[in-house]
Amino acid sequence: xxxxxxxxxxxxxxxxxxxxxxxxxxxxxxxxxxxxxxxxxxxxxxxxxxxxxxxxxxxxxxxxxxxxxxxxxxxxxxxxxxxxxxxxxxxxxxxxxxxxxxxxxxxxxxxxxxxxxxxxxxxxxxxxxxxxxxxxxxxxxxxxxxxxxxxxxxxxxxxxxxxxxxxxxxxxxxxxxxxxxxxxxxxxxxxxxxxxxxxxxxxxxxxxxxxxxxxxxxxxxxxxxxxxxx
Length: 230
Prior knowledge:
The protein is of the alpha/beta class. It is built from nine helices and eight strands.
């Protein structure tokens, strides 16, 4: 058993345990392996160990991995800041995008998504703490943005994503995750059909699952320390 295989088994057990504690079915929680800066060999090992969902922050690095795995069953999630000159590649190569925070970006992704491909699954990133150095729409503007993104023909708006402040306490993190869940329910009351909460990482996935997370984004606990980009 490789280290990556062993780490995946440990994370899946953490998800099972957290789901059981929350009275949830672990089958409803997707483990997203954050493979940014990791080599193709590491992604291939994880794939052989049964991992199917991979998260990437850097478009060109991701495309190399996508092409290396070829016509596999892997699902690719873009989880980085979206640059306007990268939307075409994101629309072409990825299955999901988690970081929409403005209508202009979402419109470009919709326009550039191939007509023969399934609509691009998307989450809106919400900056609940309004940290200036972090992407995401403010809670004040979320409802209007979500309603407009939901109208785009080649985008399938699935839910919301957030990243709590790095220095937040467990209680503050839990409150942030609970707030995102409240927003999801509020948007569904407006007629949207959202089913995804992308929240929780290596250190706080249990807190996220307790508050309804459906996608946890885990990198270091699977692949080890992040590598420097060459």
